[in-house]
Amino acid sequence: MLRVGLTGSIAVGKSFVTSVFAELGCHVMDADQTARDVVQKGAAGLEAVVQSFGPEILAPDGTLDRARMASLVFGDEEKRVRLNHVLHPFIIARQDEILRDWEREDPDGIGIVDAALMIESGGYKRFDKLIVVHCRPEVQLERLMLRNKLTLAEAQQRIASQMPQEEKQRYADYLIDTSDGFEPTRQRTVEVYNALSKHR
After folding, report:
1. Is 51 strand, coil or helix?
2. Where residue 161 falls among pLDDT bands split at 50, 70, 90?
């Protein structure tokens, strides 16, 4: 199976691109979902988070209190880095498990993992190919403000906290520019799919 990483900054259109890949028959995994899986009640990942941050991050029913956790790490770089450090091995292990399952079912298929921080974490090195989704900065800003109901200043702050788009693009085997809307993006995604198909 061809293992493909897909990444890009906030509000650049990754979800639409992954939906097109899924329509084309690729196996698609959202890293955010994997991150949720590893902190389910009773999961080893949740136990590790409790050991690191204490039982006060749990809701009364024993599940992770997401709002409490978010308020702890938001704006505290040291705690955010610690949380990522604790969870990262569990997330990688879960992704690899899913990729192995796909490979058994469909040895000639294409498996795509969509993860926002793949380059920053070094996780992209596990993949055969890397796709970077991007768009013009003004388009990204407008989409983020609309989607998350943010002010201009809030949206700029979120974008500034991430690795710049141009830097991410330097790591890419394939680039998909979503600036001009759905149809051109779909066409480019099909082109990339056809290119990936030759490497299976």
Report:
1. helix
2. confident
